Amino acid sequence: MADSQNRFEIDANQSNMVEQYNLANRYLQGNGITKDVNKAVEWYKKAAETGYIFAQYKLAECYLKGEVVEKDETKAYEWWKKAALHGHADSQYELANCYLNGVGVEKDVLQAYIWYQRASELGHAAARGKAIAISYSGTLDIFKERKGSNTYLPSNKTEIIPSSGRNKTIIILLLFFIFLGYLFFWREA
Predict the structure, then answer these.
(1) Is residue 99 domain-shared with residue 18, that is, in the same domain?
(2) C-beta separation of 35 from 29 below 8 A
(3) Inter-residue long-range contacts of 81-87, CB under 8 Å, 24+ positions, other chains counted
(4) Phi, psi of 87 (to 5 degrees)
(5) What is the CATH number of the domain that holds 97?
């Protein structure tokens, strides 16, 4: 095991970010080498700092969960943002979640919507669903009314109550699809 561990480290030390990321995964999982979460984080950082988006995503995940390193939501946000800016759809989705929930950054529904849209343009289905939900919630109407304002956040909770017309349409569509699903599955049985 020591020989394979040395071989993996030699490959990773040659500044190959993919090998650095793979070595970090091996250390984290104990796959072919002795499990060592501290070395895993060290190698994730090396790969992330060289711009490897998968390592940036994984490092952000580690910081958010706080299982491998000390929990730091701000660092999680920062690493997801770096990967998101380079077009990583999962990072764009997680960055949008940060904005939507105020994780590591001030809550900003408009920024959340923008990042969900970017991720959905890259084929991220969950991001598409959340972007649609935000647009149908009526929340974005507030931003249209406040053009030129320095803040994008609603001043009180009553402003983000969706319009009743949209709610009725959504409910009718959901009931329709539930009904279709019911018919489809009962015919099969």
Answers:
(1) no
(2) yes
(3) 82/48, 82/53, 82/56, 83/53, 83/54, 83/56, 83/57, 84/115, 84/118, 86/51, 86/53, 87/53, 87/122
(4) 90, 20
(5) 1.25.40.10
**Any residues with CB less than 8 A from the CB of 15 and at least 6 apart, and which?**
50
Task: Specify the residue for token string 């649609």.
Answer: 132
| Residue 35 DSSP one-character state | -
Give the range of the structural domain holding residue 184, as residue numbers without chain letter: 51-188
The predicted-structure confidence for 55-107, as pLDDT tens digits, reads as follows 999 999 999 999 889 999 999 999 999 999 999 999 999 999 999 999 999 99
Note whether 16 and 79 are same-domain residues: no
Number of folded domains that form the chain:
2
Q: What is the pTM of this model?
A: 0.69
